[in-house]
Amino acid sequence: MWTDVFWKEWRRIYIHSNRSYEQVQRSIVERCNTDFLPLAVVAFIDGEPVGTGCLKPQDLAERSELTPWLAGIFVLPKHRRQGIGSQIVRFLEIEAARLGHSMLYLWTPSAAALYESLGWRVKERITQFENDVTIMEKILVEQADAANPHAFGTFGISPAEQARMPKASGDT
Predict the structure, then answer these.
(1) Global confidence as pTM
(2) Is 18 left (phi over 0), alpha (psi -120 to 50) or beta?
(3) Exposed, middle or buried: residue 89 (CB in 10 Å: 0-12, 13-18, 19+)?
């Protein structure tokens, strides 16, 4: 399912970077990890997948010195503007901190304001795949100290992911 959705959403970027449909499909399979990068999460509502996002070591060849990256944040159109994307971002920030990362990067052609509202800051603006994009960064040190995913609730987080999340004090 996700390969078709991603191909439809980001086909121009994939083609520009010489990535085939099969390569996109393989990259999704490679993200099925929990304790090392790359890893992905899927948000569910009533058992149906509605959004996804991932952490990966590299997402922009021109900035290979920057790692790791938040990438592939996607929510199905009918479920947008409900906070699901923000929940995915917050969960992945906590996962990056849990894995020992103190900084996280992303690039976006259109959602810089959303990420700024989530505490990200602009690092630079470049042209990528014939688009103006914003590279952003976020310091995760504070989250690493208090890595409590339950502080954000579990809306949209799969039951398997919820079960894997450490319990906050007072949770039963």
Answers:
(1) 0.72
(2) left
(3) buried
